Amino acid sequence: MNRIKTVNDFNFKNKTALLRVDYNVPVNKQHIITDDTRIQYSIPTIKKILSENGKIILISHFGRPKKKYDKNFSLKFLVPYLYKKLKVPINFSKSCIGEETNKKVNELKNGEILLLENIRFYKEEEERNENFAFELSKYGDIYVNDAFGVSHRLHTSTTVLPKFFGKKKCIGLLMKKEIQFLNKFISGTGNKPITILLGGAKIISKIKVIENLINFSNHLLIGGGMSYPFIKIKGGKIGNSIIENDKNIEKTLKNILDKYQNSNNRLHLPKDILIAKYYDNKTKTKIVPINSIPNEWMGLDLGPNSIKYFSKIIEKSKTILWNGPVGVFELSNFSLGTKSIAKIIVETTKKGAFSLVGGGDTIAALKMEGLDKKISYLSTGGGAMLESLKGEILPGIKEII
Fold it and tell me: Are 144 and 14 in contact (CB under 8 A)?
C-alpha cells in the first residue's frame, strides 16, 4: 500500500483528472438509482480534486451493452443525480473519444465535471486497445483509478490507459479504503480473533480464497451452498443440495478438511440445515443434521443449531468479513439464517468489532433488513474483493504501482 500513490500525493490546481469510477449502479425501470453506495464512496475523491480548482473527466461503464450505443445503458441519467450531490456543473459527452468529446474537453472549466458516455459502448474497452487508450489519455493530466469494482478486469480503461501517464497516476480514496480494509484479512493484521464467513452457491470461485485466508484467520465459517461439497467429502448425505462435481475440487477440499478441521479447529461447517423439496414459500420444510439430508430434499438455509454455533463464534470476534448468504434469503421460508447472521454481525460491530461485507447478494440481504448502514465497511466490488482475498494484486492496481 505504501508504494501506491493516492490523490493526496498530487495537487490538481489547473489540472485535468481522468477519473475512472465504477458507476455501474442498480436502477429500477424508471432508471432511478436504488443503491448509490458506489457513487457515494467516490464523492471524497471528486471533492478533493475540485477543491484544488481542478477539472474532472469521469469514465465509467454501466451494465453489459453489446459494444454499441443503447439508450437503455446510457450514463446520461447520472447527470442530475451528480449535480444534486456535488452542486457543480456536470457536462455530458455522448461519446468517449472524437470531435464532440474534444470540444467538450476544451470547453471544460476548473471546478467542473465532464461525464463521458458508457465506455462499454466501445468494443475496444474489453480488447485492451492501445490506440483507444491513447486517444483517451489526451484528455487528462493525471490518471486516477477509483473503480475498485472493475480493477480485477483486464480492460483498457483500467490496465492500458494508466501506461500513458508515467508517474502521473494514482488511486482514489475509495480504492485506498478498499485496499487498507481488505489488508486486515489478507495479511492477518486485523484485531484478533479474525472470523471470515463465506457463503453463496459456488465454491469453485472461492477455493483459492479459502486456501489463502485460512492461514490468516482464527475462524473460517462455511455456509450456504459452499458447505455441501465438504459434507459430501466427509461421507455425509446431501440429497439434492447444490454441488459442483469436480474431482480436482474434491481433492483440494479434502486436503483443507484434513489440515484444518480436525487439528487446528479453524474450519467450521453447519451442524443442522433447513431442507425442502422445492424453492418456494409454500413447500413443506424440516430440519435435519447437515450430513443426513434425504434423497429428493435439498438444504436451503441454516438450521437453529447452526445459527447458534456460527453466532457464538462471530460475537467473540474483533474483525469480521462476510461474503455470500447462507441460504436462499430471497424467499422468506429460507431467510432466517442469513438474517440472523446479519444481525449478530451488526451487534458485534456495535461492541467495537470491525466488519466488512462484500458481494451483491450479501449487501442486498443487509439492505432488506435495513442493516447496511450499521456495518463498518461495505465493499464496492464482489468479484474484485474475492480476487483480492486470493492474495493477488489486482491488474488495475498493479498498473498504478
Answer: no
Helix residue ranges, H only, 280-381: 304-315, 336-350, 360-368
pLDDT, residue 257, reads 87
Q: Is 98 marked active-site?
A: no
Q: Are residues 198 and 157 in the same domain?
A: no
Residue 379 lies in a domain: yes
Q: Respond yes or no: is residue 188 known to be catalytic.
A: no
Domain that holds residue 206: 187-389
pLDDT at 184: 92
Active-site residue, from 202, 286, 312, 316: 202
Catalytic: 383? yes
The one catalytic residue among 94, 383, 390, 391: 383
Q: What is the model's pTM?
A: 0.91
Confidence of residue 263 (pLDDT cuts 50, 70, 90): low
Catalytic annotation, pick one of 98, 286, 316, 360: 360
Q: Look at residue 382 and tell me if it is in a domain.
A: yes
Task: Write phi, then psi, for 201 (nearest 5 degrees).
Answer: -90, -40
Our answer to whether residue 190 is catalytic in this structure is no
Start-to-end CA span in the chain (Å):
9
> How far apart are alpha carbons 194 and 364 in whole angstroms?
24
